[in-house]
Amino acid sequence: MSRLTWRRALRWCLTWLTAAPLALALLVAIGLSPRAEAAESFTGYLMVHFIGEGPEGEQIYFSHSRDGLRWRDLNGGRPTLLTTIGTRGVRDPTLVRSPAGDRYWIVATDLCIGCGTSWGQSIDNGSRNLVVWESTDLINWSAPRLLNVASAISDARNAWAPEAIWNPATNDYVLYWASNVPVNGRTKHRIFYARTSDFRTLTQPQAYITPPGTDEIIDTQIIATPTSPNGYRYYRSSATAGQITVDASNDILSGWTNLGNLSRAGYSNGATPGTIVVEGPMWAQSNDGSGWNLWLDQFATGRGYTPVATNAPGNLGSYWGRSAGEIDLGATTKRHGFIMNLTAAEESRILAQWGSATISRLRSYNFSDRYIRHAALQGRVDANVQPSEDAQFRVRTGWVGGSDSVSFESVNFPGYYLRHSAFEIVLARYDGSAQFRADASFTRVAGLADASASSFRSVNFPERYLRHYNQKLRIDPIDSNLAAADATYRVVP
Q1: R_g over Cα of the chain
Q2: Using an 8 Å Cβ cutoff, are 337 and 92 in contact?
Q3: What are φ and ψ of residue 394, in 5° steps?
Q4: What span, in angstroms and rounded, lies between the C-alpha atoms of 280 and 162?
Q5: Same structural domain for residues 400 and 260?
Q6: What stretch of H or E contains 417?
Q7: N or C: which end of the chain has fewer CB within 10 A?
Q8: Which residues form the Alpha-L-arabinofuranosidase B arabinose-binding domain (predicted)?
Q9: Strand partners, 95
Q10: Please, are residues 277 and 269 in contact by the beta-carbon 8 Å criterion?
């Protein structure tokens, strides 16, 4: 396409940007990035991440921000998606939006250090798979599936830290990840890539980034900046050779030029004394397009992400660390993930699904001055509850059991839920297990003593209901009018 034709096409698209499908199609055809081509303005940010080692921490978490710096945990700080396949844990998720905005994928490392896998095992004989979820709306996600990316690479020992970017030159995605292919008996992680259009079938993996000598590379992320004032279309940031480097190119697959590293800004991967030691670089452009935050995972201190800001990704002297007062990462530690700019429609769906839950109390039907509460991690019904938050719960969609299922999350102990153990009700921290999810899920039905109230049937013991007995909470079979009254509650503010 000639320069004149390109300009005319761009001018036509910008003039008719409200005609989203046609404008979008042409912008993709002339090679602008999905970030620049969205017909709707962006109103918020979604971070997809994990929170640390452990069966609960190594899952998919969502967090939301309006300004890109202050984050709120979604879904009450509990995982949004759980893997039940492969190693049963995931790390390093990336989120991919199709150019048309009609399909999304989450792709993550199949690895659970907290489930008993050691780092040595994972490095030398880890999963060669990635874990993939797919959605058309960011809300309803497919079951996780394994995508074998590394078995076709000779002597590849694992597959870590996946990322993907749309390549208009080939009209498909470049999926890239790190695999350990040892050299002379030494560990040698390098980046490989394959092309895909559906994250199901792949081209033959190819070597992509191979550092010299014994240097390795695991974490790298590429962004598209078609309007960059520095003249480059793509930038990538990597953790390699003990530094956080920045490279630039006009072609995703070739022609990369190293621009330097972030040691002058006070950050490295451990090679420069006196710097903050970080990994897992994660780019996020401001919604108005004026600048970028490069988030870096402070893995050495376990503090999670911190952002480095720039208005010109290609100018290494323009990066500066954000002050602590500008940043709020919410309740959970946010580690190696991906930030996506949200349209108003996407943001509305995300917040409606995971942004909040009704805070309620459950008042006893036959002792109307008493409420379900926790005390010393035991479930009870009591009057005059102090502190009052002990009797307040976020009534969430149940972990299992269908659309009528609910789970009760403590307001003053986020991440703790009412569950049964040996038929007694306790308040326990979510541990990621299938057993916990079943024990903490209850089917809401019409009240056994009064149909205008509610009763709650155990999902995994459906013959038993949540009831109080001598003020303690249990799940029991209901065999009398008294038991039915004990198992009936009114859900009130």
Answers
A1: 25
A2: yes
A3: -85, 115
A4: 11
A5: no
A6: strand 416-421
A7: C
A8: 361-491
A9: 106
A10: yes
Give yes or no for a contact between 361 and 350, defined as CB atoms under 8 angstroms apart: no
Residue-wise pLDDT for 405-415, tens only, equals 899 988 888 66
- DSSP result, 4-15: HHHHHHHHHHHH
The number of domains in the chain is: 3
How far apart, in whole angstroms, are the C-alpha atoms of residue 360 and residue 394? 6
Taking a C-beta distance cutoff of 8 angstroms, is the pair 194, 165 a contact?
no
The pTM is what? Answer: 0.70
Residue 162 CA to residue 184 CA, distance in Å, equals: 26
Picking from 59, 53, 222, 42, the residue whose alpha carbon sits closest to that of residue 133 is 59
Specify whether 2 is located in the same domain as 79.
Answer: no
Across the beta sheet with 172-180, what order do the strands follow? Answer: 160-167, 172-180, 189-196, 206-209
Q: Three-state DSSP class for 50? A: strand
CA 467 to the chain's CA centroid: 36
Residue 430 amino acid letter: Y
Domain of residue 13 covers 1-30
φ, ψ (nearest 5 deg) of residue 220: -155, 145
Q: Are 311 and 288 in contact (CB under 8 A)?
A: no
350 and 366 fall within a common domain: no
Tell whether the model's pLDDT for residue 402 goes beyond 80.
Answer: no
Q: Which amino acid is at 295?
A: W
Residue with tokens 């009797």: 391
Residue 106: both structure tokens together: 């989450």
Each residue of 111-138: pLDDT tens digit? 999 998 999 999 999 999 999 999 999 9
DSSP string, 337-379: EEEEEEEHHHHHHHHHHHT--EEEEEEESSSTT-EEEEETTEE
Map residue 316 onto helix, strand or coil: helix
Task: Report whether pLDDT(10) > 70.
Answer: no
Distance CA 242, CA 271 (A): 4
Residue located via tokens 């005609």:
19
Q: State the amino acid at position 96 in one-letter form.
A: V
Domain endpoint, select from 322, 354, 386: 354
109 band by pLDDT with thresholds 50, 70 and 90: very high
Write down the pLDDT at residue 229: 57
Burial class (CB in 10 A: 0-12, 13-18, 19+), 116: exposed
List the beta strands (DSSP E) in 40-141: 42-50, 61-65, 71-73, 90-97, 104-110, 129-135
The H-assigned helical ranges of 91-233 are: 119-125
* pLDDT class of 221 with cuts at 50, 70, 90: very high
Q: Are 48 and 61 contacting, i.e. CB atoms less than 8 angstroms apart?
A: yes
Q: How far apart are CA 7 and CA 14, in angstroms?
A: 11
- DSSP states of 259-283 as a string? EEESGGGTEESSSSTTSEE-EEEEE
**Strand partners of residue 194:** 175
Higher pLDDT, 284 or 7: 284
